[in-house]
Amino acid sequence: MLDVQNTAQPTVTRREDYVAPAWLVPEIALDFDLSPGETRVRAELSVERNGDSSGPLRLDGDALVPAAVRVDGADAEWRMEDGALLIDLPGDSHRVETEVVIAPERNTQLMGLYASGGNLCTQCEAQGFRRITFFPDRPDVLTRYRVRMAADKARYPVLLSNGDPVGSGELENGRHWAEWHDPYPKPSYLFALVAGDLAANRATFTTQSGREVTLAIWVRERDLPKTDHALESLKRAMAWDEQVYGREYDLDVFNIVAVDDFNFGAMENKGLNIFNSRYILADPDTATDHDYDAIAAVVAHEYFHNWSGNRITCRDWFQLSLKEGFTVYRDQKFSADQGSAAVKRIEDVRTLRAAQFPEDAGPLAHPVRPDSYIEISNFYTATIYNKGAELIGMMATILGPEKFRAATDLYFTRFDGTAATCEDFVACMEEAGGIDLTQFRLWYSQAGTPRVTASVTHEAGSGRAALNLRQGVPPTPGQPDKAPMLLPLKVKLFGAESGREIAPEQLVLLSDSEAEIAFEGVGERPVASINRGFSAPVIVETDRSAADLGFLSGHDDDPFARYEAMQQLMLDTLVESVARGRGDHAPVIDAVRHTLHDPDLDKAFIAEAVLLPSDSFVGDQMPVVDPEAIFRAREALRRDLGRELEADWREAYEAARANRFEYSPAAKGARRLKNVALGYINASGAPDAASLAFVQFESADNMTDRQGALATLASGTSEKRVAALDIFYNRYSDNALVLDKWFTTQALSSRDDTPQAVEALAKHKDFSLANPNRARSLIGAFSMNQRAFHHDSGSGYRFVADQIIALDKLNPQTAAKLLPPLGRWRRFDENRGERMRSELERIVATPGLSKDVFEQASKSLD
Ligand code: 0A1
Ligand code: ZN
Question: Which residues form the Peptidase M1 alanyl aminopeptidase Ig-like fold domain (predicted)?
Answer without folding.
Answer: 448-542
